[in-house]
TrEMBL record:
Domain (Mur ligase central): residue spans on this chain: 119-310
Cited NCBIfam families: mpl (TIGR01081)
Organism: Acidicapsa dinghuensis
Protein name from the UniProt record: UDP-N-acetylmuramate:L-alanyl-gamma-D-glutamyl-meso-diaminopimelate ligase
Enzyme class, UniProt record, top EC level: ligase
The encoding gene: mpl
EC number(s) on file: 6.3.2.45
PANTHER family: UDP-N-ACETYLMURAMATE--L-ALANINE LIGASE-RELATED (PTHR43445), UDP-N-ACETYLMURAMATE--L-ALANYL-GAMMA-D-GLUTAMYL-MESO-2,6-DIAMINOHEPTANDIOATE LIGASE (PTHR43445:SF5)
């Protein structure tokens, strides 16, 4: 499907993180790119605007007509959010407009002939892919051949983008286990054929497409089965599901973690003022000492995995140390949106109870005053991912949210699309959190949540906004309200 010469390529569902990144790669290759989506929100809407890629909203048959030529695009890439009944899908099929999935287009246009390093796992993919890309970028200062192309499922703050295209051989990308398209229900990562793989975790997720944990494990086993004998897998060492998935690998497998059996063992971890410090021991010997301006045990694990895989490809310890000392994480991963009158607002891309748990633990480490009476950690959740909208992890969700000092749970996003017997019931979650001793309440809507927070937050509080979507504009509405409160108090001479 490789396209000769510059073509007009349209992406239906362009505002997905991977789709927007692919749009940037196609633009960098010289193609003319347009797109459409149901709705656009940051950070991908901002990225597309900066690239100058027009985005039509909402989906419509007319989006597939080039206004300057009156012709259909040379190729339409269909995102996995689209299905039969979508007006653009129907026109594509009726008129036999050439189409492909995101993953297939990425493979054909960019991965063939390159050395592909993939980061996969239920958690930590985006951050770990960003870390690995930044490590190779830093190493390329002295070794230009290491400068990577990459595709990340989020905006890496060190790069200010989610993609990069270079003529070198290394291509680093996030390997998503979610399905590929309505016409290809297999995981995206089966299109990527890794030479090197990081496997961070394997848990039940994406309850809308996987029946159970065994189905998830089968997908990861198929990914492992694609890696050539000359390749390498760097896998987390303290999870039975990960061990099962790599048990029949025909390539080299190296484990990382805290246990004494790990080839890449983390030791002497400490957190100070939002920074992490730790050692990595390899083959029983001290290999390196690292520090980075990011908190959280899960981030240290992710970083160690990235360092181990980079080392396998000849990146020096010094280059890794320099990269990590300057690492700035990813937008929507523990991202500070605003600090207003002593109140810190954090945005995190929450999608699973385990991710929520690690986020809240990391915030406790980054803001230790919330462990005292000097401030509270307030969790505000929108159940929006296909897993969180279901009741499959209700108990785990309660346990994760109860780590906060105060909890507000919004309504389930588009709850009418989830069968009643499968749907998460936030009122039950709130009741269970209260029973755990953590004050919790329902938020009728975002305006009501903002009103509640406006009335009760005080200097020292840290508010974690947890959603993998736009959350009805709360990221803009809450800071605006708190600034208004501060301005009003200043105008009247009150605090």
């Amino acid at each position: 499907m490789t396209l000769a010469g510059a073509k007009h390529i349209h992406l239906s569902g362009i505002c997905g993180t991977a789709m927007a990144s692919l749009a940037g790669l196609l633009l960098a290759k010289g193609h003319r790119v347009t797109g459409s989506d149901a709705a656009a929100y940051p950070p991908m809407s901002d990225l597309l605007h900066e690239m100058g890629i027009p985005v039509a909203q909402p989906y419509a048959e007319s989006n597939l007509i080039d206004s300057s030529t009156g012709k259909a695009p040379d190729l339409v890439i269909i995102g996995n959010a689209l299905s039969r009944g979508n007006p653009e899908v129907e026109r594509i099929l009726d008129e036999r407009i050439p189409f492909a999935s995101m993953a297939a287009a990425l493979h054909e246009e960019f991965l063939l002939g390159r050395e592909t390093l993939v980061v996969a796992g239920t958690h930590g993919k985006t951050t770990t892919t960003s870390m690995l890309s930044w490590i190779f970028q830093a190493a390329s200062k002295d070794r230009p051949e290491l400068e990577p192309s990459f595709l990340i499922g989020g905006v890496a703050e060190n790069f200010g983008t989610s993609y990069q295209l270079r003529p070198t051989r290394k291509f680093i990308l996030e390997g998503d286990e979610y399905d590929t398209a309505f016409f290809d229900k297999g995981p995206k990562f089966l299109h990527y054929f890794p030479d090197g793989l990081i496997l961070t975790s394997v848990e039940f997720d994406h309850a809308d497409i996987y029946a159970d944990l065994d189905a998830v494990k089968t997908a990861f086993k198929r990914l492992v089965n694609l890696i050539p004998r000359r390749g390498v897998i760097v896998a987390y060492d303290s999870a039975a599901n990960v061990s099962e998935c790599v048990s029949h690998a025909l390539c080299r497998v190296e484990r990382y973690g805290f246990s004494g059996d790990a080839e890449w063992r983390i030791a002497n971890l400490r957190h100070e003022q939002g920074r992490s410090f730790w050692e990595v021991h390899h083959a029983g010997q001290l290999w390196a000492e690292f520090q980075m301006p990011v908190a959280g045990e899960h981030n240290v694990l992710n970083t160690t995995a990235a360092a181990a895989l980079a080392s396998h490809y000849g990146v020096s310890v010094k280059a890794i140390q320099e990269a990590l000392a300057m690492f700035r994480s990813v937008k929507r991963r523990l991202e500070v949106k605003a600090v207003i009158d002593g109140v810190t607002i954090i945005d995190d891309f929450a999608h699973h109870p385990t991710a929520i748990r690690e986020t809240l633990r990391a915030l406790r480490e980054a803001y230790p005053h919330t462990n005292t009476d000097a401030g509270r950690l307030i969790a505000v959740l929108e159940p929006r991912s296909n897993t969180l909208r279901r009741n499959v992890f209700e108990r785990e969700l309660v346990e994760s949210l109860a780590l906060a000092d105060r909890v507000i749970v919004a309504a389930v996003y588009q709850q009418q699309r989830i069968p009643e017997h499968e749907r998460l019931h936030p009122e039950q979650v709130v009741a269970a959190i209260n029973a755990e001793g953590t004050p919790a309440e329902l938020g009728a809507d975002v305006d009501a949540i903002v009103n509640t927070l406006d009335e009760e937050v005080r200097p020292g509080d840290v508010i974690a906004l947890l959603s993998n979507g736009g959350f009805d504009g709360i990221y803009e509405k809450l800071p605006a309200r708190l600034r208004q409160r501060t301005s009003s108090a200043a105008a009247t001479g009150r605090r």
